[in-house]
């Protein structure tokens, strides 16, 4: 049997243990870990112990976070807020987490991201997971601004997969000068532009699988060539193997060494080319000559059309002439009469000139 003193000690111990762990959370001092998983929390709980290094507040109903959410958590290196309903992240929300290395915001609904949302004062952040985190494509402008202003020069991994992104504003990643891994899989990217990846000199891995790339024109190829150290993944894009894709196919063959899934890349369209390896497409003719013949055909068609138009104008002209036939007849008669008068006048003068007597008279008069 425990005596009273022992009971009191035990109770105090229990109370202190519970006091140091927020309600609905599990705390393990030995593992430096606090988990508040799927507990219907609507905000970040207070009273998280200072020893915490790994903090999981996942699968709850949290919708807004700001600087006041994370106070006195100097030791947190891994923070996961995935599977919540976070729609707004204020500037400096994570600034006080001076040891933060890995931030997971995946599976949220970020619609408003303030310019310094991801700033961590110590510039310690290495991994940022925004997979399926953006509400829709419109958030990409906010994202670009916060990637610019959050001092993420030490970031090494950025996951933007599963986000329905259609394109990136130019230079969006240009302040992430130490980024090694960029996940863009399962978006709706249709093109890679001139300055999409500018500034990513240290990139080692770029995942573009499951996007909407039909081809990559010279501009996009040049952009990918500006990442010489990066291994690329390009699978599951709707590559369309028609005339014009040859430069891309030749580039693929040339760059096989750094395209990890090169062997598996196949045409998706047209139906006749489906499943054809992209690596052999460069040697096929793809009916480009036919397309040229088609060009000739359109040229011929336009000539025919021009002929028809000219013929039509001619017909109208003739019709107008026909309608005015009386007036024209009259004018022709008038003209003929006028000509006759002129002719007769001339004829008369000619006769006078050719009469020797008359010319002698005139010369003698002149003398
Ligand atoms: C962080 O951890 C260190 C050592 O584990 C400890 O001394 C310090 O008090 C902790 N910080 C906080 C705010 O509790
Ligand atoms: C913490 O994050 C790092 C990446 O920065 C990762 O390697 C590690 O496994 C994470 N630890 C936990 C407990 O999640
Ligand atoms: C800054 O972050 C590093 C880890 O990147 C950590 O070792 C260091 O203690 C932090 N400095 C301060 C002042 O918290
Ligand atoms: C980011 O989070 C998603 C979903 O939680 C996970 O599947 C993915 O592996 C994470 N990305 C990285 C780079 O850890
Ligand atoms: C994103 O959602 C907002 C709010 O519902 C809406 O106004 C905007 O048009 C959406 N943008 C896109 C690209 O769907
Ligand atoms: C792609 O992302 C959407 C959400 O944007 C998700 O519903 C779908 O399951 C993802 N597909 C794959 C293959 O991961
Ligand atoms: C990117 O380039 C494509 C053509 O390659 C163009 O249609 C698109 O408008 C460009 N996007 C941006 C954001 O510049
Ligand atoms: C891309 O950059 C090249 C020069 O590097 C330039 O000639 C071209 O016009 C640019 N294209 C676009 C769409 O901005
Ligand atoms: C293409 O390949 C996939 C799997 O490799 C297969 O399921 C599909 O039937 C193939 N389609 C055609 C048209 O050959
Ligand atoms: C691909 O490149 C190899 C040399 O690396 C060459 O022998 C082959 O003919 C090329 N294939 C095509 C389709 O261009």
TrEMBL record:
Listed InterPro entries: Cys-rich_flank_reg_C (IPR000483), Leu-rich_rpt (IPR001611), Leu-rich_rpt_typical-subtyp (IPR003591), LRR_dom_sf (IPR032675), LRRNT (IPR000372), Wnt_signaling_inhibitor (IPR052286)
Task: Outline the extent of the LRRNT domain.
Answer: 20-54
Gene Ontology cellular-component terms for this entry are: plasma membrane
* One Pfam family here: LRR_8
One GO BP on record is:
negative regulation of canonical Wnt signaling pathway
Q: Where are the transmembrane segments?
A: 303-323
Q: Where is the signal peptide?
A: 1-19
Q: What are the entry keywords? A: Leucine-rich repeat, Membrane, Repeat, Signal, Transmembrane, Transmembrane helix
UniProt domain LRRCT: residue ranges = 237-289
Which top-rank group of organisms is this from?
Eukaryota
Keyword Lipid biosynthesis among record annotations: no
PANTHER family according to UniProt:
LP06937P, TROPHOBLAST GLYCOPROTEIN A-RELATED
Protein name, please?
A: Trophoblast glycoprotein a
The source organism is: Monopterus albus (Swamp eel)
């Amino acid at each position: 049997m425990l005596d009273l003193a022992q009971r009191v000690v035990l109770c105090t111990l229990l109370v202190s243990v519970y006091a140091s762990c927020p309600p609905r959370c599990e705390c393990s001092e030995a593992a430096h870990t606090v988990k508040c998983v799927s507990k219907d929390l609507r905000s970040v709980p207070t009273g998280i112990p200072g020893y915490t290094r790994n903090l999981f507040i996942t699968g709850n109903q949290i919708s807004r976070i700001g600087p006041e959410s994370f106070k006195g958590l100097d030791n947190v290196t891994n923070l996961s807020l995935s599977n919540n309903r976070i729609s707004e992240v204020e500037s400096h929300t994570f600034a006080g987490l001076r040891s933060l290395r890995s931030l997971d915001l995946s599976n949220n609904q970020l619609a408003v991201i303030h310019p310094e949302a991801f700033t961590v004062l110590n510039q310690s952040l290495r991994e940022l997971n925004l997979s399926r985190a953006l509400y829709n494509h419109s958030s990409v402008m906010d994202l670009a601004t916060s990637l610019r202003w959050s001092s993420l020069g030490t970031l090494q991994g950025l996951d933007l997969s599963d986000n329905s992104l259609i394109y990136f504003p130019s230079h969006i990643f240009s302040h992430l000068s130490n980024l090694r891994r960029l996940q863009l899989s399962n978006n709706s990217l249709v093109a890679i532009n001139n300055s999409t990846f500018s500034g990513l000199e240290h990139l080692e891995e770029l995942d573009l699988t499951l996007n909407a790339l039909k081809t990559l024109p010279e501009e996009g190829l040049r952009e990918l060539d500006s990442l010489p150290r990066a291994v690329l993944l390009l699978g599951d894009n709707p590559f369309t193997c028609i005339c014009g894709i040859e430069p891309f196919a030749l580039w693929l063959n040339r760059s096989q060494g750094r395209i990890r899934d090169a062997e598996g890349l196949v045409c998706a369209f047209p139906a006749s080319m489906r499943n054809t390896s992209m690596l052999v497409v460069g040697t096929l003719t793809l009916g480009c000559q036919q397309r040229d013949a088609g060009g000739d055909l359109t040229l011929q068609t336009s000539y025919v059309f021009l002929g028809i138009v000219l013929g039509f104008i001619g017909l109208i002209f003739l019709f107008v002439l026909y309608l005015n036939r009386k007036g024209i007849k009259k004018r022709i008669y008038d003209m003929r009469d006028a000509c006759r008068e002129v002719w007769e006048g001339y004829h008369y003068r000619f006769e006078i000139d050719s009469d020797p007597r008359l010319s002698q008279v005139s010369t003698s008069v002149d003398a």
